[in-house]
Structures are given as structure tokens and as C-alpha cells.
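Section 3.1: Structural characterization of target chains.
Under the original work plan, the team committed to producing a structural model for every single-chain target entering the pipeline before any wet-lab resources were allocated. The record below documents one such target. The sequence was received from the expression subgroup and is listed exactly as submitted; it comprises 334 residues.
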Amino acid sequence: MSFLKLFLLVFVIFLSACQTVQVPIKHMAAAERSIPGDVKKIAVFPYTYEPHLNPSWSYLKDKLPDKVAHEITAYQTYGIAERAYIQNLMKEAMISAGAIIDQDKMNEIAQIATSEALVVGKVNTISVEDREIVREVTVATQDPNDPGKRMYPYLVRKVTLGVTSEMLHVTTKDKIVTDNFNETYNSESDPQVVQTGLFTVKDSAYYEGQRARVPAIDEIINSLAEKAAKQFIQKISAHPVHFKISLQKGDAPGMQQGMDWAQNAQYANAIQEFQKATSNPVESSQAWFNIGVCQEAMGNYSAAIQAYEKSNQAKHNTQAVESIARIRRYCPSF
């Protein structure tokens, strides 16, 4: 076996040994702002798209509220007035009001749609900057007179989106929540574009494929719009928060088998395997912790807390203590 093959084999074994199994955990967080208790249904109106902005992306006036309504519906915190119904009421109001829909008219429409609150918004900023530059790359060459310097075109793309979203009470007309979103996408900060991984070689092939890795403008705008909607939702609605918890390793019987099951989201089977290791005095803390993670992933919070407590009793386990705190933060009844 050549030295290179031996090195690669050892390296792969080393990587395998270093790999950890991460279990995805989801909890629901409460709205960040206090929302009046009488709000059960929301009317979501089209956003305003400022006239001075590029008309190419005016579709955001409908896409943004659609995303907000979709997020609210997905989390089932409130009912949503049917969007098509709101659109029809607005068309009728525009005919009678001379194409002007003011705040009072929106409140009237929301009341007709039996909603206690309404959501409005405005696209404040949208800008796209494409900068064409060249990068010099040294490539291997057989010609001693050729220095191997090559120039490759290189695209730097920046997209900025600024959005204001508001939730207002229909009866009192008070502003319940105002959220300002402003974010810039920069292709130079996008790991899918820059590719700074361990095995990335910035050679001619890397630069020749650079432009193809930069996302399309509409794709970027759509991603920013989704972020804007999610940021607003976090303030007005219960929303999911996601964690990835690394299982703790061990050599006792059942530990590796449990890891394998957990990696494939077979948590009940993983628990059965980890149970075998709980009698091992050296690794019982890790085994109980892993059982807790699997129980938490399945939504069995009481069982998860019991497992985390046993983990910490066997040997002080900071991660187990943090996990108990996490469950009690998002599930106060436990």
C-alpha cells in the first residue's frame, strides 16, 4: 500500500472517530411581544411598495404578506382572514373610495372579515449591486517561460432588503407591534459561493465555476423576504426554535448501536440500546444523557427531564443541566 493511500485511510478513520451524532430538537417559543388576549384572527393586507423602487420586484407587495400569513397559519396561533376575501373587499373599497385605502378603511375591512387585528407593511428599500472584477490565479504549466498567471472573471453580488411590518388592533387602532427588517446579502459571505472547506482548492476550476455558484437575484430576494416574515412572526406569534444536540460518546455495550439508531432518527430503538449502557459505572452519565436527548426529540419532556437528572446524578453533566433548563424554558408546565 502506498504512503498516500495509507495516509488517506488513517485520515478517514480519524474523521469517523471524530464525528458526532447531532439530534435535532424543536421547541415552540412564545411571541416576543405582548399581544392583546382578544386577538384571535388577523387580516393580512398587501404591503406598500414605494413608487421610487425598482418595479421589477414589486411582487414583494404580495409575496411578503403571503409569507406572513403562511407562517401564522403553520403555527396555528391565530386564525387568518382569507386573503382572497380581503383582496375582494379592497377592490370594492377602491371603487367607492377613488383608489385610496386609508387606515380607517382597512379597519373597516378587517371588521367585515371578523378580525381583531390587522397586519400591514411597507417595502422601504431594495437594492442590487453586481460588481464584476477579475482574480489572478497561478496554475501549473509545463512551459518554463509561462509564469502560469491566469485572470478569471469574478462576480460580487450584494442585495439589500428593508421592510417595515406592523400589527394593529382593529378596535383601538393602536399599534401592537412594529418590526423593522434590514439585511444585506453578500456573495462574499455565502459559504456556498466562497467554499472555504478543508478540501477546497482555489484553482482554475474553482474560479471558472464561481459565477454559477452565485444565487440568482430573485432567489436572494425571496430568501430575504422569508427572513423578514420570520422576524416579524417571532414578535407576534408562537414560533419554533431549533437546536442540534450532540450525543455523548462511549464504548460501553449499546452506546455505538444507540448512536447508529439516533443518527437515523430511530429514537425509540436508540433508547433501548442506550439503556444497556446505563449500568456501566463509567459511562452511565453519557448513556442517560443520550436517552434524555432522544426522549426530548420525541416530545416526551417528562421522561427527558428524568433521564437528564439521572445523568447529572451519575456524574456532574453540564449539558444535562442545560437541557433541563431548555425544556423548562420552552415548556413551563414541566
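The two ends are 58 Å apart (CA to CA).
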